[in-house]
Amino acid sequence: MFERIRSRLGRGSQQTGAAVAEGNIPRHVAIIMDGNGRWAKTRGLPRVAGHHSGMKTVKRITMAASELGVEYLTLYAFSTENWKRPKAEVEFLMKLPQEFLAIELDELIENNVQVRMMGYKEDLPDYTLDAVEQAVRRTAGNTGLVLNFALNYGSRKEMTDAVRMLCEDAAAGLIRPEEITEKHFEARLLSNGIPDPDLLIRTSGELRISNFMMWQLAYSELWFTDVYWPEFTEAHFHEAIGEYQRRTRRYGGL
Ligand code: FPP
Fold first, then answer.
1. Where is Mg(2+) annotated to bind (predicted)?
2. Which domain holds residue 236?
3. pLDDT tens-digit profile of 15-49?
């Protein structure tokens, strides 16, 4: 499989020097898919055209991750702060999951992909939530890549909610404050049951975390690229994985 990936990289791989080695594939890759708006602007297109094009990148990278044997791919599709954008852009972004799943769900199922969602369901329009929940239901039995959409997700809210839940449990006498461990906290995060990301990718040249999985990224390897998300290809993804494989993770040790 790895030879196949190398040969498919072709000219791009020579340009980027990307080569994925066998073994040591990150279990969990998280991506901040940034630069859709700027990509559109450079082409004289409306911002939403960038989001639409970004949807096609979602498909490409999902397949690439699945093929490499990545177990979890978490994509930051909409943050709790993105509601501040103009109404028309928010509406467009809310329709993308529905459009994406209408086009791609059958192929995701054929590829054994399991769709999940990490975020606050209550504020989502019915058409968004229905599409995502139907995909989650239809793919629940799949055992391949977990495609985890961070949709209406925000790390500060996630952590504040976890603290509140622990306080409520303590007030109800279910746990004593001195007994609280990291495990208790993690169990109350939206990511409960999913391992921490091994690798975080952010596109578009921005060097920020933007309220994304701040607890879970504590020991993740970070990889940034100037490439805008709509232009992010399998070759770029392989380049990120290749660099991840060359790094030494010490988790604070020696
Ligand atoms: C950030 O780029 C991107 C987003 C807020 C939305 C990301 C959504 C997608 C890539 C499509 C998701 C597809 C599915 C299937 C859910 P930006 O708009 O902030 O770009 P800019 O910084 O250049 O303005």
1. 34, 221
2. 24-154+197-246
3. 444 689 999 999 999 999 999 999 999 999 999 99
Q: Judge if the beta carbon of residue 34 lies within 6 A of ligand 1.
A: yes
Other C-beta atoms lying within 10 Å of the C-beta of residue 84:
8
Q: Is 192 considered catalytic here? A: no
Residues 32 and 50: their CA atoms lie apart, in Å, by 15
- How many domains does the structure of the chain reveal? 1
The reply to whether 111 belongs to the active site is: no
What CATH number should be reported for the domain holding residue 231? 3.40.1180.10
- Distance, in Å, from the CA atom of 87 to the CA atom of 224, rounded to the nearest integer, reads 29
- Inside any domain, residue 138: yes
Nearest partner of 234 among 57, 17, 111, judged by Cα: 57
pLDDT confidence of residue 1: 52
Check whether 71 is labelled as a binding-site residue: no
Question: Is the CB of residue 82 below 6 angstroms from any atom belonging to ligand 1?
Answer: yes
Q: What is the pTM of this model?
A: 0.93
Q: Is 6 within a domain?
A: no
The confidence band for 4, taking pLDDT boundaries of 50, 70 and 90, is very low
79 marked as binding residue: yes
What is the spatial distance between Cα 48 and Cα 217, in angstroms, rounded to a whole number?
29
- The answer to whether residue 56 is domain-embedded is yes
- Report how far ligand 1's centroid is from the alpha carbon of 98 (Å): 15
